[in-house]
Amino acid sequence: xxxxxxxxxxxxxxxxxxxxxxxxxxxxxxxxxxxxxxxxxxxxxxxxxxxxxxxxxxxxxxxxxxxxxxxxxxxxxxxxxxxxxxxxxxxxxxxxxxxxxxxxxxxxxxxxxxxxxxxxxxxxxxxxxxxxxxxxxxxxxxxxxxxxxxxx
Length: 152
What we know:
Elements: H1 9-34, H2 40-51, E1 56-58, H3 59-66, H4 70-82, E2 86-90, E3 98-102, H5 104-124, H6 131-149
Antiparallel strand pairs: 1-3, 2-3
């Protein structure tokens, strides 16, 4: 049976709630990170680098990990470099690619930002969700993310 071309009332309500939640969470995260002098995009880059071996990643791998194209990453890394948060290096393995590396200043900024960021995430997300809801939400997000990843 083919699905209707419009959302039913429950689907519309759920979709609108999701869109509102995404928008408001993004705003809360942005506000929280701004207190530490970071944007949400800065934090995404720094978080990935913080989790990478030796605090560095090939630029193409970093772009893929955060779902950006290479041009967007390049422009953002340039802005972050001027603030001393990251630096570009040639890839030692082949000399053709570039590596983005966390600087000491980037590490310090990240260390200061993480506790505030985690508190914001808990206050606006995890504190509102029961453990059994969390498991269900995880299953739903995993399915949606897997489908959406095919369109990047």
